[in-house]
Amino acid sequence: MLLIASVSFAKPKPRNDFKILSVKKNVLYFKVDRAFVGGVVEIYDANKKFMEADSLPHTHTMIYFDEMPSGHYVVTVKKGRKHTEFKYDSDSDYSGGAAGSPL
Questions:
Q1: What is the spatial distance between Cα 43 and Cα 69, in angstroms, rounded to a whole number?
Q2: Cβ atoms within 10 Å of 89's Cβ, excluding its own
């Protein structure tokens, strides 16, 4: 009887810093990596004008754009030296995770 064992190690998958969970008219729901918890979420318009900021107490976050003018936005998540950002278009009515796009 012959027994052969083979061991291989796969490369770890690169982790995304964020994932868009849902995008609907005027609502953006996303998840960030745990390293960003305790950081800040900032919203800028298409002209890079600062609109709003809030703390990030959890990995899952929902942003309501219903009181903001419709248009294109950049959502930035920061904590320490680490940051990520992605685009959001409040003019479109998306469903699913394909609406936000990394910069």
A1: 13
A2: 18
Confidence category of residue 10, pLDDT binned at 50, 70, 90: low
Convert the pLDDT of each residue in 21-38 to its tens digit: 988 888 899 999 999 999
Provide the Cα torsion 78, 40, 53, 66; round to 10°: 90
**At 84, which amino acid appears?**
T
Contact 94/23 with Cβ under 8 angstroms?
Answer: yes
**Quick check: helix, strand or coil at residue 43?**
strand
Give this prediction's pTM.
0.73
Mean pLDDT of the residues in the chain: 81
Query: Domains in the chain, ordered, with CATH?
Result: 18-94 (2.60.40.3080)
DSSP-derived letter for residue 70 is: S
